[in-house]
């Protein structure tokens, strides 16, 4: 039976969004969490963008060292040979790519001013895919931008043409969030049956249905006989009203009435880190979690009204669909209410030793401690926020990569 996989696009769609961004160190910690949670692939950035290059290369080093594995690290580029060539010049070891090109009539007309016919769109895409494989790609996915407003027959043709040149998947981008669950189910089932290629869903939340469209789209793909790859972001961050929220999608696959017996949740998914991840991402983005955020909002397991409180206390299943412990919630958290030492760009060795001592990290000698302290200072210059436990532990464990990640040199 076909399977469902998760491809998280936080480090691409999430960070390209207006007024939302992550420092390269924060993007790295996002990749670490995604790997721990069992996400299949992270769309980790833009390999043709100069300021991403050190971060991307350092994350590929981490993968090579076994520190960021088995997650696949994939870069997003436009489906044009110029981008492919630049990506391989700047990030020579990149193995996985997704290449994007618009397919809808409105975008062909209004974005490209009618410069490309549908036939030429297919030719450009095929040329880019072939170049990608020639330069060393192992897997390439092809993204049909605005697929939800694209003629279905053309999408089938586009997907067949992508398969012909060896693309492993086609991404069906609901770029404007225009689809609904019933429509996307039918469309994706048809494409899967006719083009016989695995398909990615990429749903936006403009109508509040991104997670619903994602799981119904995935079901359509699976029912059409192909593997489905759902694009998500942490806390639903992404362009405009956001993308499909990672946790909402996972919980829907596991607990929704029509899904719970289908076993579509990927086997290796571990939900118990998701609470920590959501909090880290909220801090890194500087965007508080709404109280009613699925699973991780502060009200997600709160009860007050008489009937609900009484019912939940008698048996949690009266008013809770899933357990908070499953998401890693419920452990008491230590919050320092007295003296607090933090580390930052102007810290000295004593405060630094205190902070790392609490994390139970020991240094070989003073030289090593001084080196890590210097990196920690730079990390604070880089993020401009007090460093988190995750970041401090990462820097102590992978100082060489941390240094490279934080090195951004304009040409
Ligand atoms: Zn998008």
The helix count comes to 16
Major sheet strand order: 1-2-3-4-5-6-7-8
CATH class of the largest domain: Alpha Beta
Topology pattern, helix = H, strand = E:
EHHEHEHEHHEHEHEHEHHHHHHH
User: Considering DSSP H and I runs of 4 or more, what fraction of the residues is helical?
Assistant: 40-55%
CATH superfamily of the largest domain: Aldolase class I
Instruction: Please tell me what the overall shape is.
Output: globular
The value of Rg in angstroms is: 22 Å
Q: How many E strands?
A: 8
- What is the fold-level CATH name, i.e. the topology of the largest domain? TIM Barrel
Commentary on this structure:
The protein has helices spanning 10-14, 24-37, 53-64, 81-90, 105-110, 118-135, 152-164, 181-195, 210-223, 246-255, 274-285, 306-314, 349-358, 366-383, 389-397, 399-406, and strands spanning 4-8, 41-45, 72-78, 96-102, 139-145, 169-174, 199-203, 228-232. With 411 residues, it is an alpha/beta fold. It has an 8-stranded parallel β-barrel, surrounded by 7 helices. The chain binds zinc ion (ZN).
């Amino acid at each position: 039976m076909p399977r469902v996989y998760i491809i998280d696009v936080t480090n691409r769609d999430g960070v390209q969004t207006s007024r939302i961004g992550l420092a390269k160190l924060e993007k790295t910690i996002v990749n670490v969490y995604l790997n721990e949670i069992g996400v299949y692939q992270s769309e980790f950035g833009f390999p043709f963008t100069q300021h991403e290059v050190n971060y991307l290369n350092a994350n590929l080093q981490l993968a090579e060292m076994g520190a960021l594995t088995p997650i696949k690290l994939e870069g997003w580029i436009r489906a044009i040979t110029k981008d492919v060539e630049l990506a391989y010049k700047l990030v020579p070891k990149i193995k996985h790519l997704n290449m994007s090109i618009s397919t809808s009539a409105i975008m062909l007309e209004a974005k490209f001013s009618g410069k490309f016919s549908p036939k030429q769109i297919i030719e450009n895409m095929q040329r880019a895919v072939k170049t990608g494989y020639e330069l060393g790609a192992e897997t390439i996915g092809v993204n049909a931008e605005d697929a939800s407003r694209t003629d279905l027959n053309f999408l089938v043709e586009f997907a067949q043409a992508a398969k012909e040149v060896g693309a492993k998947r086609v991404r069906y981008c609901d770029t404007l969030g225009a689809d609904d669950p019933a429509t996307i189910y039918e469309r994706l089932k048809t494409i899967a049956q006719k083009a016989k290629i695995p398909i990615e869903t990429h749903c936006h939340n403009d109508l509040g249905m991104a997670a619903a469209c994602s799981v119904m789209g995935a079901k359509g793909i699976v029912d059409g006989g192909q593997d489905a790859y759902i694009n998500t972001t942490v806390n639903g961050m992404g362009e405009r009203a956001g993308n499909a929220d990672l946790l909402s999608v996972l919980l829907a696959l596991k607990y929704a009435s029509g899904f719970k017996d289908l076993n579509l949740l990927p086997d290796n998914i571990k939900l118990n880190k998701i609470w920590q991840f959501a909090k880290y991402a909220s801090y890194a983005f500087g965007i508080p979690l709404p109280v009613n955020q699925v699973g991780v909002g502060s009200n997600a397991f709160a009860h007050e009204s008489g009937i609900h409180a009484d019912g939940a206390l008698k048996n949690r299943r009266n008013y809770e669909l899933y357990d908070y412990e499953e998401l890693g919630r419920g452990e008491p958290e230590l919050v320092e209410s007295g003296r607090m030492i933090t580390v930052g760009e102007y810290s000295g060795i004593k405060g630094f030793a205190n902070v790392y001592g609490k994390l139970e990290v020991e240094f070989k000698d003073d030289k090593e401690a001084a080196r890590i302290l210097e990196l920690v200072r730079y990390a604070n210059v880089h993020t401009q926020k007090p460093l988190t436990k995750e970041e401090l532990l990462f820097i102590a464990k992978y100082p060489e990569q941390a240094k490279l990640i934080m090195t951004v040199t304009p040409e």
